[in-house]
C-alpha cells in the first residue's frame, strides 16, 4: 500500500471524524470527491488506487480532473469549486505529515477556484403558492400528508434534510406553536408556526397517529422520506398546479425554491435581513444577501423614493410624404447603378 492510502485514512478518521466531528453528509461529500479523483487518476496513470503515490496526484492531474468534471460529467462551476475545496483540505492535512512534498502541495493549493455567475433567485409568488397547496388530493391519506408537508416547507423554509428528520414529537401546537429541527452544521433551531399551519398539522397528526419518535411525514410503510421522494412528490404537485397557475411551467421548482419562497415572503413583509438569516439558520448573513438582489418590491420602493427626471416623451410628427418619396429615389438610383 502506498503512502497516499494512510494519508486518506488518517484524514477521514482523525481530521474529519475525531477532530472536526463532521456530519455524515460532510464525510460522504469528501468521500465522493476522493473516489472520483482516484478513479480518474487510475484511468490516466494505469495504477491501482491503492498503489497511487502523492506525487501522482500533482497539480496538472488535479487540473485535468477539474476540467473532466465540467466537460465530461457536465458539473457546474459551483460543483467544481466544491470538489476543489475538498481536495485542498486533504492536501493541507498532508502538508503537516509530509513536508518533503511541500512544493507539490503548494502547487495544488494554488489552483484557483472558478468564478461563477449568481443567478437571480427563483421563488413562487402568492398565486403559485396557492395553486401548489391546492394540488394534493386531501381526500386521501397521501394527499393530506403532502399538503401538510408543502405547507410546512413554504412557511418555515426548512431544508429537505431538516424536513425529513422531523418527528411527531418535534411539534409544539399549543400556545407558542412551533417546531424544533436539527439543522445544518448541527445547529438546533425553533421555527414558529402560523395559525393555518397549526390547524393543518393538528388534522394531519390525528390522521398520522404516530408515536413521538415516529417520522412526522412518513412513507406508505411508515419509514422516513428520502430526498428523492420529496423531490418527486413536489414535481408531481407542481405539474398538477400548472393548470391553475401557468407561470409555474416556466420555473424549475425544487425543494430549495420553496425555501427561497419563505425568505422572499419574509423580506417583502418588511423583515430585516438579519431576522431572515436567523429564520433560515444561515451561518453568515452573506448567504442571505442574495434575496435583496431578487426582491423587485424593495427596488420598486426605492425607486418610488427617488425624484424622477423632468422630461417628457415628446410627440411624434410624421415626415412629409413627398419628401419621403424623394428620399427613396436614392435607393432606386443606387440599385440602377449596380
Can I get a quick summary?
This protein has 338 residues and is mainly alpha-helical. The protein has 2 domains: 4-109, DNA polymerase, domain 1, CATH 1.10.150; 126-300, Intergrase catalytic core (hpI Integrase, Chain A), CATH 1.10.443.10. Helices cover 57% and strands 4% of the residues.
What does this structure look like?
With 338 residues, the protein is mainly α. The protein folds into 2 domains: 4-109, Orthogonal Bundle (DNA polymerase, domain 1), CATH 1.10.150; 126-300, Orthogonal Bundle (hpI Integrase, Chain A). Helix content is 57%, strand content 4%. The chain has 15 helices and 3 strands. It has a 3-stranded antiparallel sheet with strand order 1-2-3, with no helix packed on it. The protein is flat and about 90 Å long. The N and C termini lie far apart (81 Å).
| CATH topology assignment of the largest domain | hpI Integrase, Chain A
Determine the structural class based on helices, strands and strand pairing: mainly alpha
In the CATH hierarchy, what is the superfamily of the largest domain?
Intergrase catalytic core
What is the annotated CATH architecture of the largest domain? Orthogonal Bundle
Mean pLDDT: 88
Approximate helicity band: 55-70%
In this structure, how is the largest beta sheet organized? Answer: 3 strands, antiparallel
Number of domains: 2
Spans of at least 5 consecutive residues with low confidence: none
Chain oligomer state: single chain
Distance between the termini: 81 Å
CATH class of the largest domain: Mainly Alpha
Order of secondary-structure elements:
HHHHHHHHEEEHHHHHHH
How many H/I helices? 15
Radius of gyration: 28 Å
